[in-house]
TrEMBL record:
Gene symbol of the encoding locus: pfkB
Domain Carbohydrate kinase PfkB per the UniProt entry, residue ranges: 16-290
Record's protein name: 1-phosphofructokinase
Record EC number: 2.7.1.56
Lineage of source species: Bacteria, Bacillati, Actinomycetota, Actinomycetes, Kitasatosporales
Keywords: ATP-binding, Kinase, Nucleotide-binding, Transferase
Enzyme class (EC, first level): transferase
Annotated signal peptide: none
GO annotation, biological process: carbohydrate catabolic process; small molecule metabolic process
Single GO MF annotation: ATP binding
Length: 315
C-alpha cells in the first residue's frame, strides 16, 4: 500500500483553450474538474495502476467535500483531517500547443490542533504501508520544518518515505534522510542555488542533495527526460512523446510509477518515465492506466549524457 500525504490539496478545474489572449473572452473547448494536489495525483495514479492507496489530506468547506466525493468515486480511500478553513480551488488553462497556465490559490491556514491531527492521522494510517509519499506545498500554519518532522516519524515507524516539495521545506527535510526526493529541474536548481544548463549540471546538483541527506534523487527534467541518482550510481531515462496534451500531474504520475515499481533502481526509473510520458498525452490531470503506457518508447541508460544541453534550462 502507498500512503500519500497532501498538506495543501485542491479542487482543480482545467479548461482546454485554443489560445490564451489577455483581456479577451476565451471560449474553452473542454473542461474537467478533478481532485488536486500532488499527493492526491499520486494516489490517483497508484489506483489507476491497480494498487491500493490511502490519501491523507486536510479538507474543509464545499470544495473539500467535493474533493472527497471525487476521490471516493475513483475508488480511492480517503483519510480526511477536518479543518475549519476551506480547501482551495485552482484553475489551469491548457492551450492546444501544450502551453499550460496555472492559477494556484494559497489555501487555508491550519491551526496548531489541525497540524498535530494531520501528523497523527499519518501515523495511524502508515501501519502496513510500503511507502509514504509526501507531496506539494505547505499551507499557511505549517512551518518549513513540518515535512522534516514527518520524515523523522515515518522512519521511526520503519516506513520508507518519498518527498516531493521544494524550497526551505525540502532543505529542512533532507536532514532527516528521506529515502527519495523528487525535484523538477527548477526545484533542483533552487536547492543548490545555481542554474542548470546541462544534464551533467543536474547530476552534480542531485549528488549535492544526496550529500545533504537524500538517499536517492529522482529528478524530472521536463522534455529532456528523468534522472535517478542513488548509492548504486546514476541513470538517465527518456521516452518518445509525439504530442503533448497536458503536463498537469505528469511529475506526480512519474513518482507513482517509480514507487509502484519498487522505488529503487533503473527498472523503477523506466516505470517513472513511462508513466510521465503517458500522462502528458492525456487531457487535464488524467492519470494513466497500464493500457496507456508504452514501455517500448522508454530508454534508460547508465551512460548519462552529461554534456547534453537541456532544452529547458533551469534558472
Amino acid at each position: 500500500m502507498i500512503l500519500t500525504v497532501t498538506p495543501n490539496p485542491s479542487l482543480d478545474r482545467t479548461y482546454e483553450v485554443p489560445s490564451l489572449d489577455r483581456g479577451e473572452v476565451v471560449r474553452a473547448t473542454g473542461e474537467r474538474v478533478d481532485p488536486g494536489g500532488k499527493g492526491v495525483n499520486v494516489s490517483r495514479a497508484v489506483t489507476a495502476a491497480g494498487r491500493r492507496t490511502v490519501a491523507v489530506l486536510p479538507l474543509g468547506g464545499p470544495s473539500g467535500a467535493l474533493v472527497s466525493e471525487l476521490l471516493d468515486a475513483q475508488g480511492i480511500e480517503v483519510a480526511p483531517v477536518p479543518i475549519a478553513g476551506v480547501t482551495r480551488a485552482n484553475i489551469a488553462l491548457a492551450e492546444t500547443d501544450g502551453v499550460l497556465t496555472k492559477i494556484n490559490a494559497p489555501g487555508p491556514e491550519l491551526t496548531a490542533a489541525e497540524r498535530e491531527s494531520l501528523l497523527e492521522t499519518v501515523r495511524g494510517q502508515s501501519r502496513g504501508a510500503d511507502w509514504i509519499a509526501c507531496c506539494g506545498s505547505l499551507p499557511r500554519g505549517l512551518a518549513p520544518s513540518w515535512y522534516a518532522e514527518l520524515v523523522a516519524r515515518a522512519h521511526a515507524a520503519g516506513v520508507r518515505i518519498a518527498l516531493d516539495t521544494s524550497g526551505p521545506a525540502l532543505l529542512r527535510a533532507l536532514r532527516e534522510r528521506p529515502d527519495v526526493v523528487k525535484p523538477n529541474a527548477e526545484e533542483l536548481a533552487e536547492a543548490v542555488g545555481r542554474p542548470l544548463a546541462t544534464v551533467g549540471d543536474a547530476v552534480k546538483a542531485a549528488e549535492e542533495l544526496r550529500e545533504l541527506g537524500a538517499r536517492s534523487v529522482l529528478a524530472s527534467l521536463g522534455a529532456d527526460g528523468q534522472l535517478l541518482v542513488d548509492d548504486a550510481g546514476s541513470w538517465f531515462g527518456t521516452a518518445r512523446v509525439d504530442a503533448v496534451r497536458s503536463n498537469v500531474g505528469a511529475g506526480d504520475a512519474s513518482l507513482a510509477g517509480f514507487l509502484v515499481a519498487g522505488g529503487t533502481g533503473p527498472e523503477a526509473l523506466a516505470a517513472a518515465v513511462a508513466h510521465g510520458a503517458a500522462a502528458v498525452r492525456l487531457p487535464g490531470s488524467v492519470m494513466p492506466t497500464p493500457a496507456d503506457l508504452d514501455p517500448g518508447a522508454v530508454t534508460v541508460t547508465a551512460q548519462v549524457p552529461t554534456d547534453r544541453v537541456l532544452k529547458e534550462p533551469a534558472t
